Amino acid sequence: MRRPGRVALLPAALLSALLAGCAAKVAPPPASTLQVPAGWRAPPLADVASRPVDQAWWQGFNDPALTALVTRALANNGDLRVARLRLEDYRARVRATAAAQAPTLSFDTSAGRARTLLYNGQPHVGNAYQAEFQAAYEIDVWGRLANATEAAAATLRAEQANADAAALSVAANVASGYLTLRGLDAQLELAQATLKLREQSRDLARRQFEVGYSSRLEWLQAQAEYDAAAEQVPQLQRQVFEQENALAVLAGGVPGPIERGAPLAELAPPPVPAGLPSDLLRRRPDIARAEQTIAASLAQLAATRDQLLPSFRLTATGGIQSTELSDLLHAPTRLWRLGGALVAPLFDGGRVQAQTDSAAAQRDQAIATYENTVRQAFAETENGLNAIARLREQAVQNDARRATAAETLRIARNRYRNGYAPYLEELDAQRNLYAADVARLQLRTRLLTASVDLYRAMGGGWQAR
């Protein structure tokens, strides 16, 4: 005796068994070991701004030339242009992927002539003219197409964050390069001023030798110091020239001179931005890029896994056909066809499972990359905060060193001119003061560029989308 209830339940049971057999196995993600510290271990700084990081943080240096140079670089830099073109590419990819969720419509026409046999065995030559519209639509029951679209959209967001990271890098490199250039300008001015002083000392030593007041050794020592100072000038001029060319190219132009603004002595770094380690998770574009890469890998994993599930596709065809071309236009025979298909893979040699395993591995790689990026962001910010604190301490010691060297030179010069000491003492004092002055300019430049590095490390004001 037949049991209608058992028969009615049979298709559902077969479908459940089919879905269970089609489900791909997905390995779970690895356990995260990332820990966000509660605060910074670097020494606290006094001049911490209460406001967050400004997006145009380079304006905090109050140098119009620097601001104009960064603005030009952000508009014309070659790497940024490539990054923006890549965004257009990925926007098109999102549209192409999303189009799979929409119905498709196509038009087809054909004309043919054939010789066939009729039912009575007689040959027949006939024509066939046909015009047809075809429509198809896949019902996204399991969300496979939606997941593929989300994967493409997340990849686009990752590329946008990558473009932001490139913009931050360009702005920071331009600012650091400009500040380095102003430091070289200051060192060149110091070298040229020192050369004039060495020239005066050399001429004085020569005159004293000529009148017999000092020895030829002192004159030669003064000449050697003059030559050493003269050697520094072309070396610094070469460095200034090369730094200008590098900045011009970085700003998207051809090698050439760079307009100057405030001198090094008037440049002051902006206040250190406030923030906790957790703030970097939304400030740094490279962290946002890594986060969106995880989202893309998760969506792609879901889309790849769902390839083993059945797909549902609706099709519709409508058209006209006739044996004469004139009938096709005036009295054709109308044709139509509706259909639905359920397609499920039974055996593919493990291809989809292998693709699923690959997508799961890419997900795990994206998670590991995210954790490494966050850790690196913490380290860079810690190093930036510590560098500013230690450079400030070093600058205080340099001020004391320079004051001592200046007083030593004053005493040595008076002793030499009054005949109580040889010229060698004054030469040593001059060298010590010059070294202290050079170190002072270099420290100031390093402190300014360290502020740029800190703003770069803290995200530069870019906010995660």
From TrEMBL:
The keyword Signal applies. The keyword Lipoprotein applies. Keywords: Lipoprotein, Membrane, Palmitate, Signal, Transmembrane, Transmembrane beta strand. It is a lipid-anchor. One of its GO terms (molecular function) is efflux transmembrane transporter activity. PROSITE patterns: PROKAR_LIPOPROTEIN. It comes from the Bacteria. GO terms for cellular component: plasma membrane. Residues 1-23 form the signal peptide. Pfam families: OEP (PF02321). It is found in: Cell membrane. InterPro entries: MdtP/NodT-like, OMP_efflux. NCBIfam families: outer_NodT. Belongs to the outer membrane factor (OMF) (TC 1.B.17) family. This is Transporter. It comes from Pseudoduganella armeniaca.
